[in-house]
Amino acid sequence: MKDASDNNTTPRFDRAKPVWPEGREKERNVIVGFRARFEPVGERTVFKVAGSTLYRVFLNGKFIAHGPARGPHGWYRVDEVDLTRKVKPGRNVLAIEVAGYNVNGYYLLDQPSFLQAEVVSGKSVLAATGSAHPFEAAILSERIQKVQRYSFQRPFSEVYRLEPGYDRWRSDLSVNMKRTRLAVQPMVNLVVRRVPFSQFKVCKPIQIVSKGSLHGVPVEKLWKDRALSDIGVKLGGYV
Question: 124: helix, coil or strand?
Fold first, then answer.
């Protein structure tokens, strides 16, 4: 991956505009899948992306990136991923899962959801959100929306109802997405990334140190975290 912050110039998109399912940019814990097909036409193929709140990216079904890097209120960092050595000849499928949390906490900023992304090969824009060559999008229903917060510091827990082939849409274009209507969102302030990408190296266990079993113990007074008991005006979430 190439760091999009090789210099201090303001990053820009050639064609992409910020988009999100219409009328849902401030809704809590909405998970959206975006997908585009493209065929490389130049010596170098690059994927540029900015968004809120979090996203993870797959190329032909293989995980390649997670973002964005943290930024200040009202500013969004742009990630640039060099796909040149990752794409294959002919048709490729780029898929992005975006979590729009819209909830306060210490981990992430509470800002309206959006995705702004494009694929550029040579001098050609092959796919771009909000353009003539858009990404298709669908609400990912396998991840449950109305769940409790992970903690008062962090946003929502991840709860899934998975069926066989739930993730085939990331790589198989024959899997139809239940498309949702996208709306162009207000333009956002962009800023360079300035920090390295994570490598996501897989670390395998060396040995089992110990093992055992867990048995239920009666609790006279169950402690309730504020993320369960104090949801309201000051601490957002689902009751």
Answer: strand
pTM of the prediction? 0.91
Is the peptide bond prior to 53 cis by the omega test (within 30 degrees of 0)?
Answer: yes
160 exposure class (CB count in 10 Å sphere: 0-12, 13-18, 19+): exposed
- Cis check for the bond before 68: say yes or no (omega within 30 of 0): yes
Chain segment 6-28, per-residue pLDDT in tens: 456 889 999 999 999 999 999 99
Q: Are 170 and 54 in contact (CB under 8 A)?
A: no
Whether residue 112 contacts residue 151, with contact meaning beta carbons closer than 8 Å, is answered with no
Element (H, E) at 11: none
Burial of 145 (0-12, 13-18, 19+ CB in 10 A): middle
CA-CA-CA-CA torsion for 209, 215, 216, 219, nearest 10 degrees? -60
